[in-house]
């Protein structure tokens, strides 16, 4: 199987974490962000992740990919179904400040070259404004994120989110928070850091493993 993904993408990280927990092997294909042809040829739209199971047989929704391979319900999908409205709202709240803070830093990781960096920045600045202005106003985004983590995440951690066992909910949350490790002026609280590292350990996740082969 070929797994087409971006290293920074939270939805791609979901699958990588889930596959790590499930012990699923795959060929990693990190696409340049400015490669429009590959995803369009595979699915008709520029959206990752994409899992090519066989020639012409593809799946490109992160949760659908994981459900397809979680035959023993190790990710506890019924738990997510019970909390889906709450969890989806929490992730939506987290993703906005995280993306604003991390995008200007993601583009300088090994994932990007000059062309893909320019493509990514041009696309994202249409919605968020110039990256330099986002960083100038970083205190606003940092305050928003800290408030969310303190009031809506930490209080619900019982080893994992509202549970003593890891579930798909934790993978969804962790994948959206992981990018903040790259932000130089942010530090997770000890409780949230321990939580994220527990998810990492159980899923055997390595953020930039694709570049150290």
Strand order of the largest sheet: 2-1-3-4
Main beta-sheet annotation? 4 strands, mixed
Q: List the total number of helices.
A: 9
Number of domains: 2
Name of the CATH class of the largest domain: Mainly Alpha
Low-confidence parts lasting 5 or more residues at pLDDT below 50?
none
Indicate the structural class.
alpha+beta
Q: In the CATH scheme, what's the topology name of the largest domain?
A: Glutathione S-transferase Yfyf (Class Pi), Chain A, domain 2
* CATH architectural arrangement of the largest domain: Up-down Bundle
Radius of gyration: 17 Å
| Beta-strand percent range | 5-15%
Instruction: Write down the oligomeric state.
Output: single chain
> What is the N-to-C order of secondary-structure elements (H for helix, E for strand)?
EHEHEEHHHHHEEHH
Helix content: 55-70%
Tally of DSSP β-strands: 6
In one word, what is the shape?
Answer: globular
Structure description:
This protein is an alpha+beta fold. Helix content is 56%, strand content 9%. It has nine helices and six strands, in the order E-H-E-H-E-E-H-H-H-H-H-E-E-H-H. The strands form two sheets. Strands 2-1-3-4 form a four-stranded mixed sheet. The model has no long low-confidence stretch (mean pLDDT 95).
């Amino acid at each position: 199987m070929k797994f087409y993904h971006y290293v920074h993408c939270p939805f791609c990280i979901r699958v990588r974490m889930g596959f790590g927990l499930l012990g699923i092997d795959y060929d990693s294909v990190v696409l340049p962000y400015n490669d429009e042809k590959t995803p369009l040829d595979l699915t008709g739209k520029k959206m990752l992740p994409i899992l090519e199971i066989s020639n012409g047989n593809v799946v490109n929704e992160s949760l659908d990919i994981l459900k397809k391979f979680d035959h023993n319900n190790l990710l506890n999908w019924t738990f997510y179904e019970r909390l889906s409205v709450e969890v989806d709202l929490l992730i939506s709240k987290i993703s906005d400040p995280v993306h604003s803070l991390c995008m200007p830093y993601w583009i300088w990781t090994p994932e990007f070259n000059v062309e893909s960096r320019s493509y990514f920045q041009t696309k994202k600045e249409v919605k968020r404004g110039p990256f330099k202005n986002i960083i100038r106003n970083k205190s606003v985004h940092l305050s928003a994120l800290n408030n969310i983590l303190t009031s809506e995440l930490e209080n619900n951690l019982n080893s994992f989110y509202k549970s003593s066992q890891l579930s798909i909910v934790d993978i969804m949350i962790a994948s959206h928070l992981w990018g903040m490790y790259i932000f130089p002026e942010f530090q997770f609280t000890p409780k949230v850091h321990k939580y994220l590292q527990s998810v990492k350990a159980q899923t055997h996740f390595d953020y930039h493993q694709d570049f150290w082969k």
